[in-house]
Amino acid sequence: MARFAVELVFGPDREKRLAVRPEHREYIASLAERGVILASGPYADDAGALIIYEAEDEAAVKEIIAADPYTPAGVAEWTIREWTPLMGPWIQ
Fold this sequence. Notes:
This protein has a 4-stranded antiparallel β-sheet with strand order 2-3-1-4. Strand 2 and strand 3 form a beta hairpin. The protein is about 35% helix and about 35% strand. By secondary structure, the protein is α+β, with helices and mostly antiparallel strands. The protein is built from 3 helices and 4 strands, in the order E-H-E-E-H-H-E.
């Protein structure tokens, strides 16, 4: 399995994003329960968020993101980068 750092940059329609956020967080929580998400959370300035995924490949991450309620709502732009952690509790 590979790990991916995915950065979200929130769009200007904050009201729309906040309306969709409960569904997004429920979806993220379900992925975390299954071990697909290792960590997630918004930046302190609320301009975006960072999510760390564990998946087979980038195509799998894109499928997961496509199913995230934020995607059809169009409230965030996503940047996917494969990430290779070298130190810390996730290293095996």
